[in-house]
Amino acid sequence: MEPITGPILYSAVLPTDKTVEAMIYSSKAPLLKINGNNIDLGDSTFSNMDIRDAYTRLVVTIPIVNGKISLRFRFDWLSSYWYFNFVEVDFVDAEIKQYNLTLNKEVMAPRRFSYHCGGSAIFIDNDNDVELHLFDVQAQPDAHNHRFSDAYNCVPFTTAPIWSGIFVTFLLGIGLVVGLSALNNIKTMDKFDNHKTKQLSITVWE
């Protein structure tokens, strides 16, 4: 097989509504590691969207040199959010081997939002030494018209530079309060304003 290059998009439409679609994007070929062997995954030859009460599942079948691989990405629904933490990998060659992989971090977004994150998202099955890597991933179980909705980005609003700025501002605020308090406590000499003391007299010679 030829080397796999370029971005990969796995998607499937809802059978009852062709405008609703589950989509998973990787900026380059997903990498599957099985017992130390690396397999680059290309485009799917079959895709299906499975809807249940508690979850939505995107199933894709991908041809490889010695057989095919089936990926079952699972999106769990909870209240008004969806969570993307599991994938089942079926490796079909001489026999069928199934692995259950869990994402190494929590991925979630509100309904009608996609999720996007730079870097690598890694699904892991430690017991069987299996990993699935997605790159600069963007995912959504309820996309419309073959387009991702606004992205719920994995980078938090309060990044390290923002926290540093808040901390410096806080220190400067404390310094300002202390300085104003010190100025307010300075007492000027009022000896010459007291009528009980000798008055100050200034003699002017002409």
Short description:
A hairpin with a 3-residue loop joins β8 and β9 (96-103). Helix content is 12%, strand content 49%.
Would you mind describing this structure in some detail?
- This protein has a single domain (8-153), classed as Porin, CATH 2.40.160.110.
- Helices cover 12% and strands 49% of the residues.
- The chain has one helix at 160-184; strands spanning 8-14, 17-26, 31-34, 37-40, 46-51, 55-64, 67-78, 81-92, 96-103, 108-110, 114-116, 120-125, 130-135, 138-144, 151-153.
- The strands form two sheets. Strands 3, 4, 5, 6, 7, 8, 9, 10, 12 and 13 form a ten-stranded antiparallel sheet that branches.
- The longest helix is centred in the C-terminal third of the chain and has 25 residues, at 160-184.
- It is elongated and about 115 Å long.
- The termini are far apart.
- The mean pLDDT is 85.
CATH fold field value: Porin
Number of domains: 1
- H-E order: EEEEEEEEEEEEEEEH
CATH top level is Mainly Beta
The shape, in one word, is: elongated
Topology, number of strands = 15
The helix tally amounts to 1
Helical percentage: 10-25%
CATH architecture level-2 label: Beta Barrel
Mean pLDDT: 85
Taking pLDDT < 50 over at least 5 consecutive residues as the criterion, the unreliable ranges are none
Main sheet: strands, sense, barrel: 10 strands, antiparallel
SS-based class = mainly beta
Rg: 32 Å
Strand content: over 45%
The separation of the N and C termini measures: 113 Å
Pfam families: Ac45-VOA1_TM, VAS1_LD
Transmembrane segments: 162-183
Main location: membrane
Subcellular location: Membrane
